[in-house]
Write a structure and sequence with these properties.
Helix content is about 75%, strand content about 0%. The protein is mostly helical. The radius of gyration is 24 Å and the shape is globular.
Length: about 300
């Protein structure tokens, strides 16, 4: 009994320590941002001017670039990642399952700077060729306007998608492996095709699959070096996929060592605070979505069927 109590207290202490650590990060970021918060207030989040010489700072271009590139990467990577997970867990021959799983997980182990170099030498020229071959009718639209530089939002979204795919597919694959075989067998017993049985398994595992997608989204939000090398680093708010833009992590990495004044340093730290808040909001919202989807299954009462009397 005493050992069990000690075990519970110890595990609870670790959980409390984690909460304290998260709160301490938020408090320290806020403390180091006070000068910028007092100077600009919420205007810091809503203005686009970033002029260190004049002492004018607005984080809207960086917030826009971070969310835009991450959502674009999510749109590109999610179908591919789920397709990989379904193929490996449901359709892949046994002799290929091991090598394909290893190669998928190997992508997650490649350093970010290597992805960035690949983006500079391979991806950016390919994107530039795509931009120059875009018809003029499409170039007139805001989504495809801008000079064909290669470095821009499209390149950033593509490289983030490549980096997110192994995380999402690995978690989704493990989730699909936990689906009870009875789910597929019941679908086949009702006359379902293989595609319909896989769809039933994915519906059963939808909560975990959404968690895998949100894990990839969180990975994309905080990526720094690879995005910095291909996004163009221009603090502007633009809908165009071809326009060079900026992200919060990239501006901190590029300008923190060059910040000379206190207001400049506090402004960069407040960008880190904004990124911290956005990450917390996204993860909280995804956790709430997963909880809401799992709630009907938890609240469903078991049905007891009495045996008919002989």
């Amino acid at each position: 009994m005493r050992r069990e109590l000690g075990f519970r207290v110890g595990i609870g202490a670790f959980a409390v320590l984690l909460l304290i650590l998260v709160a301490a990060i938020g408090v320290e970021l806020t403390r180091q941002s006070l000068l910028s918060i007092k100077e600009f207030g919420f205007r810091f989040w809503l203005t686009s001017t970033w002029d260190p010489v004049a002492g004018e700072f607005g984080a809207l271009p960086f917030i826009w670039g971070t969310l835009y590139s991450s959502i674009l990467a999510l749109v590109i990577s999610t179908p591919i990642a789920l397709g990989i997970a379904v193929f490996i867990s449901e359709l892949c021959p046994a002799r290929l399952r091991g090598p394909l799983t290893f190669l998928t997980e190997l992508l997650a182990a490649i350093p970010s700077i290597v992805y960035g170099l690949w983006g500079i030498f391979v991806l950016a020229p390919a994107v530039r060729a795509l931009e120059t071959s875009t018809p003029e009718a499409l170039r007139a639209l805001p989504l495809f306007s801008g000079p064909p530089l290669g470095n821009g939002m499209l390149a950033a979204g593509l490289i983030l998608a490549v980096m997110v795919i192994p995380f999402t597919s690995s978690v989704a694959r493990e989730v699909l492996k936990t689906v009870p075989p009875a789910q597929r067998e019941a679908a086949y017993a009702l006359g379902a095709t293989r595609f319909e049985a896989i769809r039933a398994a994915m519906f059963f595992a939808r909560t975990g699959i959404i968690g895998a997608v949100m894990l990839g989204f969180g990975r994309a939000l905080g990526e720094t070096m690879a995005v910095t090398m291909v996004i163009g680093n221009n603090p502007q708010v633009s809908l165009s996929l071809f326009a060079p833009q900026y992200t919060m992590a990239a501006v901190i990495a590029n300008e923190f060592t060059e910040a000379t004044g206190d207001l400049y340093l506090h402004a960069l730290t407040e960008i880190g605070l904004v990124l911290f808040i956005i990450t917390l909001v996204v993860n909280t919202a995804s956790r709430g979505l997963i909880w809401a989807m799992g709630r009907p299954a938890r609240s469903r009462k078991p049905v007891v069927v009495a045996e008919a009397a002989a």
